[in-house]
Amino acid sequence: MINGKRIAVVMPAYNAEKTLQVTVGEVPDLVDIRILVDDHSSDQTVDLAHRLGLFVFQHDRNYGYGRNQQTCYREALVAGADVVIMLHPDYQYTPLLITAMASMVAYDVYDVVLGSRIIGGRALRGGMPIYKYIANRLLTAFENLFLGIKLSEYHTGYRAFSRKVLTELPLLENSDDFVFDNQMLAQCVHFGFRIGEVSCPTKYFEEASSINFRRSVKYGFGVLATTFQFGLQRIGLVHVPRFSDKGRKLEAGGDTYYAARSETVRPA
Description:
Mean pLDDT: 90
CATH class: Alpha Beta
CATH topology: Spore Coat Polysaccharide Biosynthesis Protein SpsA, Chain A
Number of strands: 8
CATH superfamily: Spore Coat Polysaccharide Biosynthesis Protein SpsA, Chain A
Low-confidence stretches: 252-263
Strand order of the largest sheet: 7-5-6-4-1-2-3-8
Distance between the termini: 26 Å
Number of domains: 1
Structural class: alpha/beta
Number of helices: 9
Shape: globular
Order of helices and strands: EHEHEHEHEHEHHEHHE
Strand content: 5-15%
């Protein structure tokens, strides 16, 4: 707990057995709620998560990274979290930054905090493939131009959110795939939430999850589409549910919230 706020760490997992224990071992003691959502792994991720004392939820099939995040945030809200940190369980991002990121949200400095691999210039030294680094820089420059803000990157998987962000964004309008991350940040900009960044070293190694070149290209086109939709929405040429305050949200209030919990998810 920080500043009277309950802190949750959520881990969207798929075949994370090899790296889960070392990741959880570095999560600070101040974290009140530790949740893992398994997207129908074929390894022993779920069994290991139970042994590590996590709250574990499991999808009945592989729905994708975006749907996994929706479940993560929904269950964190149900558990009463005030600040939610999304941490990949593949040990690519250090959990040691959780305290700093959660504090910035808990003390109302920012609504959203990103762990940036670009600040500090250590991404390539950490093993980021050169094609991903170049794509990251080009896409980020494009998005900064169209979204009207200045971030060092939009593509990190290490993020902290206030409860208000997670209940007010129409997250159910987003993709089930990897572009969910980018769509969510575009929503944060559209709805006026404050976004901060901290420098985060990253590690690329064999066991760490990373999408392949084909999926990376698909993600890149999804980013471009999201950015164009944002721009067209802003000037009134289109009306996209993703950028509407009437879009589907994780929490509608009261009993509706619990009724909205996916039947495809079960405590594991």
